[in-house]
Amino acid sequence: ATGAGTAGTRLTAFWARATSAAMAGPTLGGTTDHIYARIITYRGVITTGVPWDVTGGGVKAAASNTVTVAGIVTTVANTRIVQAVARDNDNAGTAFSAETNANLTGILERNDAGTLTGNGGGFAVWDGAKATAGATGNTTANVTSSINAFLSIALRPPVTGPDHYELTLPTASVACL
Hints:
By secondary structure, this protein is mainly β. It is built from no helices and 12 strands. It starts with a strand and ends in a 9-residue tail after the last strand.
């Protein structure tokens, strides 16, 4: 989290291992203003224990038109680096573009939206592949002028089988406002 009140943003990630195709959605709360949420599912990740190798995060406390997501150091090869960046501005549309990191291949934006409810806010999620263990380096992106909180998660590949990641999004977004 960074900032406060109407000039603040927070990013929180929860995870669950899918046990069926009909799992109940999460219940979110803890705020009196607004919550913007999205369920994103990755397949082809290790099936036991926590699904990540390493995580890292940080904030950008002064509003600007770019964001730099600090790198992490993976300990295993063939990880999927998932990065989420929250923003504080009152905008329901897209806000991020031109995600770039020379150490990740196939960077693809998976979500970029927000809300006008309350004081607004939103976030984007993108991911890319890291073939070898080691430093991911920083990822840069353009963003509508805002302060940001960010998170990187290196998803572990399965112990056996192909190193394949498949993203599925629900047909409707989850928004608790």
